[in-house]
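User: hey, got a sec? need SHSP domain-containing protein folded
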Amino acid sequence: ELVCPPSWETLNYGEKKRAANECVNGAERILAPRVESSLREDGTVDLWVDMPGVSKDDVTVEATGAELTVGGSRKRNTPNTVAADGASGHIGDTKVKTQEGAHHDRMVNLRYSTTIKIRNTMDLSRTSATMEDGVLHLAIPLKPEVAPVRITVT
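Assistant: Yep! Here you go:
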């Protein structure tokens, strides 16, 4: 749970703005993940969806018609002390100043969501998905070609 700063006088403008936004909006961020794609010679489309900090158990992939909706969430970590250089490695991380004046690094709740239009020649039912190091890989094959059928007229 986010606790608003007890004393605004100790914060600079950027800290006040960030703290006010978190108090009003909560500590969740919603982002559209970065998506890269490529086409294989056999027609399979590969999609790579970047969702740093998201585990495979927190990823959802749903196909509806010609749309593929991808989402994922990252939960807030327990606060811990910031490194001496103040370095932070995740999108959405913030530093929170406590009443004692110590800085803590807190990973905010973060949700990714995007909807991707898929050509009707792609077979979403045979899509494979793997998640590794915060990158979701989707391989979407072409639908098998259907041989023409000759219909006899009687």
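Quick note: The first strand starts at residue 28 and ends at 31. Let me know if you need anything else on SHSP domain-containing protein.
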